Amino acid sequence: MAPSVAGGMMEGVPEGDSIYLVATQLNQALAGHPLTVSDFRVPAHATADLRGRRVLETAPRGKHLLTRFEGGVTLHTHLRMDGRWRTFRPGERWHGGPAFQVRAVLGTEHGTAVGYRLPVVQLLRTAEEGRVVGHLGPDLLGPDWDEAEARRRLLADPRRPVSEALLDQRTLAGIGNVYANELPFLAGVTPWLPVGELPDPDGLLHGARQLLDANKLRPGHVTTGDPRPGHQHWVYGRGRRSCLRCGTPIRSARHDRDRVAYWCPRCQRGPAPGA
């Protein structure tokens, strides 16, 4: 059981495939076994004790994690910018950060999961999970993925810029800034093209699901098929570097306070800042 490597990603919340990987690692450490350690270091749940309850599973839902225990109890966590879960073998020394950053500890005889800097640590009844994830759109990696519903939500406001629509978790769950930049490139449009002008919305959604599925069990987000450093992405993080397809310098501009958009002015058609 390897320690979790997923955590705060550059320029925003981890993508849905990173959350899927964290859920997989939490399941490897905890699922099917009763808790021997239950320690919640947040005021709302400081006295909660789940020891003896069997861990049923950790289910990813978009960028949310739902760890379910027997007896109808769920732990809802979200990593946002800086949080992370790490898993350790029995007796292994924790090495994910200083002790004061620990927000939750779940342990079984087979492994321990430690949550560092978790901004969301919430215990609730499993039957009430809809309160925290019911607003989300179709989950790109979920067993109930509904492409028709995702398409309807994507095109609900034809004037909305494509990257803005992709980043809205109410449209579809799991897209972060990496894929919100890479998917427009693969579609041949700029991040600011109105979704109503997309030449192939179904192709965009199909490509999104393919990319997340391809990356869900490995760290990082390879969109080019080339895992070598500096070659994993077509445009994301490549401002002023040459486009891997045509050689034109990649441009960048602020989406908002927290996110940067990248695009190739030759390979991608549509509006852009300053044009």
TrEMBL record:
Domain Formamidopyrimidine-DNA glycosylase catalytic span(s) in chain numbering: 14-142
Domain FPG-type: 234-269
Presence of keyword Metal-binding: yes
SUPFAM superfamilies in alphabetical order: Glucocorticoid receptor-like (DNA-binding domain) (SSF57716), N-terminal domain of MutM-like DNA repair proteins (SSF81624), S13-like H2TH domain (SSF46946)
Catalytic activity field: 2'-deoxyribonucleotide-(2'-deoxyribose 5'-phosphate)-2'-deoxyribonucleotide-DNA = a 3'-end 2'-deoxyribonucleotide-(2,3-dehydro-2,3-deoxyribose 5'-phosphate)-DNA + a 5'-end 5'-phospho-2'-deoxyribonucleoside-DNA + H(+)
Documented EC number(s): 4.2.99.18
Name of the top EC class for this enzyme: lyase
Keyword field: DNA damage, DNA repair, DNA-binding, Glycosidase, Hydrolase, Lyase, Metal-binding, Multifunctional enzyme, Zinc, Zinc-finger
Pfam family, one: Fapy_DNA_glyco
InterPro entries to which the protein is assigned, alphabetical: DNA_glyclase_Znf_dom_DNA_BS, FPG_cat, FPG_N, H2TH_FPG, Nei2_N, Ribosomal_uS13-like_H2TH, Znf_DNA_glyclase/AP_lyase
Family note: Belongs to the FPG family.
Protein's name according to its UniProt entry: DNA-(apurinic or apyrimidinic site) lyase
Species name: Kitasatospora saccharophila
